[in-house]
Design brief:
By secondary structure, the chain is an alpha/beta fold. The chain has 2 domains: 3-45 and 98-206, 3-Layer(aba) Sandwich (Ribosomal Protein L4, Chain: A), CATH 3.40.1370.10; 46-96, no CATH class. The protein has 7 helices and 6 strands; from the N terminus they run ββαααβαβαβαβα. The chain has helices spanning 21-24, 30-43, 103-119, 136-145, 161-167, 183-188, 196-206, and strands at 3-7, 13-18, 123-126, 152-156, 173-177, 191-195. It has a 6-stranded mixed sheet. Helix 2 (30-43) packs across helix 3 and helix 4 crosses helix 5.
Length: 207
């Protein structure tokens, strides 16, 4: 079982925590991770782009000039793609970009993403987060104490309005709960910050 240091809000080491192999030392399947990330990015696309083909553009029913004798290429209407105001070749139409990923693959990818954070030393475990008030400066101070310099994903065991409100205005910080974490958010942020209670819940759900 991998062990990592557990810190308090001041950034001091207060102990160690053992992580379950089934979640934090599992196989890092790059194919599964790639598929899940593609699926998440595709799900963000609205799929509302639309353009008209030559058959949908209004006008152009009359032959623009006679077939032979002009020295020009043979044309019928002026709504063909090569003409101004003509239709679009292979015009995009509204569509669904969703990529279906089996549940087992999603779980494999998530555990692989968590394992990669542990392996790279980018996972930080806090014993708890306690704020006196929903103040942004308090969360910013905690992040500075634990060495977060760029982006971070802060994972809580459950909804906490005080911490969520205090974190909302910090650039590069995203807050999530155990039941809302996903592969894209884990990999897109430099640090993976999680509370001790949240670690236990993650192991309970995914082990």
């Amino acid at each position: 079982m991998p062990k990592i240091a557990m810190l308090n809000q001041e950034g001091a080491k207060v102990g160690e925590i053992e992580l379950k192999d089934a979640v934090f030392a599992s196989e890092v399947n790059e194919g599964a991770i790639h598929l899940v990330v593609r699926s998440q990015l595709a799900a963000k696309r609205q799929g509302t782009q639309s353009a008209k083909t030559r058959g949908e553009v209004r006008g152009g029913g009359r032959k623009i000039y006679r077939q032979k004798g002009t020295g020009n290429a043979r044309h019928h209407g002026n709504r063909a793609p090569q003409f101004t105001h003509g239709g679009v070749v292979f015009a995009p139409k509204p569509r669904d970009y969703d990529i279906k990923v089996p549940r087992k693959i999603r779980r494999l990818a998530l555990k692989g993403a968590l394992t990669s954070k542990v392996t790279k030393g980018e996972m930080i475990v806090l014993d708890k987060i306690s704020l006196t008030a929903p103040k942004t400066r308090e969360v910013a101070k905690i992040l500075k104490n634990i060495g977060v310099q760029k982006t971070a994903l802060l994972v809580l065991a459950g909804p906490n309005d005080t911490i969520t409100r205090a974190s909302a205005n910090i650039e590069g910080l995203k807050t999530a709960y155990v039941n809302t974490i996903n592969v894209l958010d884990i990999l897109a942020n430099e640090k993976f910050v999680i509370t001790e209670d949240a670690v236990k819940l993650v192991e309970e759900v995914y082990a």
